[in-house]
Amino acid sequence: MATRLLLADDHLIVREGLKNLLLNEGYEIVAEASNGQEAVEMAEKLDPDVAVLDISMPRCSGINAAGEIHKVRPQIKLVLLTMYKEEQYALEALRAGIKGYILKTQAAADLVQAIRTTLQGDIYLSPGISECVVNAALAKNSANVNPLTGRERQILQLIAEGKGNKEIARQLDMSVKTVESHRGNLMKKLDVHETAGLVRHAIKIGLIQP
Fold it and tell me: Do 23 and 32 touch, CB atoms closer than 8 A?
């Protein structure tokens, strides 16, 4: 039986390229998602063997989506496509449950190997990303690199995308008061005092592109 894959990327042309590559390798594409929230819903419903996620997607980033998928379907192997080589992004991804961390510039060469490696239970990092990242991610002192919860990162991303409190509340099915509380907690944790500071932090941790 062919390995079943979920592809998530908000750019159709990228998804088509990945799909053609993977179909040629004998994989089955069971679903395609154009944003992180769709990816989470499809993963929970279809239970693919592997989910390939872009790091920067609307509504819910690839890292946040990975964290949500890992909670409900921990058996799914998670592979992230990213443009970031910096350690902080790899650490965040590995803590979210991602087992494959692939640089987009090397996706054509690395993706198939990453899928094979993760299915064997191992971690795959694109060449150029130090293996010491794995050890750092598992070290106790790495837990404080990003103090935000998954929900806070999701709300931070929506704020950075220009969404207002009412729109965020409607999208996440929560009260406006709860969103306001999360916004206040974000500012306190990050020691910023205006929306622009939240946006800068969202860019810094890879939730949105500059």
Answer: no
